[in-house]
Specification:
By secondary structure, the chain is mainly beta. The chain is built from three helices and 14 strands. The protein has one domain: Roll (Lipovitellin-phosvitin complex, beta-sheet shell regions), CATH 2.30.230. The longest helix has 15 residues.
Length: 271
């Protein structure tokens, strides 16, 4: 008898689960403040013969902008006006005592981003280097590409397209070529009620790549995205992960291993 009641309870619970449509909408005239932060910290252990050395690494960055969407193609903005409110990159040389912060060339300036094929043209971005211009791209984050086309219930899973994730990682990482990315997404929770419902999507990530000719990199991370269902507005994406590095230099005979902790967060505050 108890078994029958348990089966009835489980069936009614599954039947009562609400299905939701996961869509990201951007409209002409939308205005928002976007903030992106990232940090990489860890240690590299090197050895040449009997000599060993441990080096500490630290990198941080921040980008804060205010956007107004001028044109939209499909789900993605095709053109927008951007004011760079703040932007910097901070690095600590392994042999230095204090980190050095470099301000972005475009801080305090306004630029126009326009889509040209798969590329983004930054009008007004004169003077900025290629690595800085890569921060200004007209496309949705890879995490919200490949969302299910049909409505799904809490617990549903799907795969995020590998090519989109590799393109995004390559744009963010300097000196690293990511070659493989496996990303499994899951609708973990739907919180709030009525017009304030928010979908919580959790991602399990496995990545691998190389740095230079001799170093290999493998990592795992977990990400969480928050999406407002009524408006289709992306609210935040937070990532925490761990990367292992190993390699050797054929010329010097040096061998090295390392461990890095990676964190990043993106937020959208809509007007």
């Amino acid at each position: 008898m108890k078994t029958i009641f348990v089966l009835i309870f489980l069936a009614s619970s599954a039947f009562g689960q609400e299905s939701v449509k996961l869509e990201v909408h951007v409209k002409k005239g939308d205005k928002y403040t976007y903030v992106s932060t990232s940090s990489v910290s860890g240690k590299i252990n090197g050895q040449v013969g009997e000599e060993k050395q441990e080096l500490s690494l630290l990198q941080k960055s921040l980008l804060k902008v205010k956007d107004e969407v001028l044109e939209v193609t499909g789900r993605e903005p095709a053109a927008l006006e951007r004011k760079i409110l703040e932007g910097w990159r901070e690095e600590k040389n392994p042999f230095a005592e204090e980190p050095v912060r470099t301000k972005m060339t475009l801080e305090g300036k306004s630029v126009t981003l326009k889509k040209k094929g798969e590329q983004t043209v930054v009008e007004g971005g004169d003077g900025a280097g290629g690595d800085e211009l890569k921060k200004h791209r007209l496309q949705l984050p890879a995490f919200v590409k490949g969302l299910p086309k049909e409505a799904v219930a809490v617990g549903a899973t799907w795969d995020t397209p590998e090519r989109d994730m590799l393109d995004e990682l390559s744009a963010e990482a300097q000196g690293v070529e990511w070659t493989a990315a496996k990303v499994k997404a899951k609708l973990s929770e739907v919180s709030g009620s009525n017009a304030a419902k928010i979908a919580i999507i959790v991602y399990d990530i496995e990545i691998s790549g190389k740095m230079g000719e001799s170093a290999t990199m493998k990592g795992k991370a977990k990400a969480t995205a928050r999406l407002e269902l009524a408006t289709g507005r992306l609210l935040s994406i937070a990532v925490e992960g761990h990367v292992e590095i190993s390699g050797d230099d054929a010329n010097s005979g040096a061998k090295f291993t390392g461990s890095l902790e990676v964190k990043s967060e993106q937020t959208w505050t809509w007007e």
